[in-house]
Design goal:
The structure holds two protein chains of two kinds. Chain A contains no helices and eleven strands. Chain A is mostly beta strands. In chain A, the strands form two sheets. In chain A, strands 2, 4, 5, 6, 9, 10 and 11 form a seven-stranded mixed sheet that branches. In chain B, about 0% of the residues lie in helices and about 60% in strands. Chain B is built from no helices and eleven strands. In chain B, the strands form two sheets. In chain B, strands 2, 4, 5, 9, 10 and 11 form a six-stranded mixed sheet that branches. A five-stranded antiparallel sheet of chain B has the order 1-3-8-7-6, with no helix packed on it. In chain B, a hairpin with a 6-residue loop joins strand 4 and strand 5. The chains are: A mainly beta, B mainly beta.
């Protein structure tokens, strides 16, 4: 069974730009969560989607948004990028809500 | 607010030298405690889920245990390929959100 895939794997943007990251969950998984990982803060929860609906949101500004499609694939968008948004963005999928989450390889975003 | 504290931050072992990593937590209604392994530049890899105090799970050289306040990841006779960052996370009842600790960076020397 294929694992969670994320595209692109690496991205370089400049301040003020926006970016869209994509996540394809494990086949049959309906829950997708997004996390931001930085050296200083570790892994922090961004949001969770289930059945195309955002179920929970972390403590991040409104510049961070996401969505889920009917095939469970998910995208997250960051608008008006700031230097502090440089991080590894991880997507995790689960068969159902509150079940074990399996992570993708992440998208490394560098904001210059 | 859910909190997870892992110790030590870093641990260096000789090959074959057994040790334990600690994960202390405070959570409103624990639903599950998760252990992941993360190699540099990669996403976390799932290891174990523990649901109730007294539960234990094993996989090769790793054994995870859970009490009402903390979890231990015991590493028996580690090998260099066990070198990685080990992450602990908790999930509260009613939510899918994982709250992570900062991790323990393990280095096993031959």
């Amino acid at each position: 069974k294929a694992g969670v895939t994320q595209t692109p794997r690496y991205l370089i943007k400049t301040r003020g730009q926006q970016v869209t990251l994509s996540c394809s969950p494990i086949s049959g998984h309906r829950s997708v969560s997004w996390y931001q990982q930085t050296p200083g803060q570790g892994l922090q929860f961004l949001f969770e989607y289930f059945s195309e609906t955002q179920r929970n949101k972390g403590n991040f500004p409104g510049r961070f948004s996401g969505r889920q499609f009917s095939n469970s694939r998910s995208e997250m968008n960051v608008s008006t990028l700031e230097l502090g948004d440089s991080a590894l963005y991880l997507c995790a999928s689960a068969r159902d809500q509150q079940e074990t989450q399996y992570f993708g390889p992440g998208t490394r975003l560098l904001v210059l | 607010e859910d909190q997870v504290t892992q110790s030590p931050e870093a641990l260096r072992l000789q090959e074959g030298e057994s040790s334990s990593l600690n994960c202390s937590y405070t959570v409103s209604g624990l639903r599950g405690l998760f252990w992941y392994r993360q190699d540099p530049g990669k996403g976390p890899e799932f290891l174990f889920t523990l649901y109730s105090a007294g539960e234990e799970k094993e996989k090769e050289r790793l054994k995870a245990t859970l009490t009402k306040k903390e979890s231990f990841l015991h590493i028996t006779a580690p090998k260099p390929e066990d070198s990685a960052t080990y992450l602990c996370a908790v999930q509260a009842g009613g939510y899918s959100t994982l709250t992570f600790g900062k991790g323990t960076m393990l280095l096993v020397s031959p």
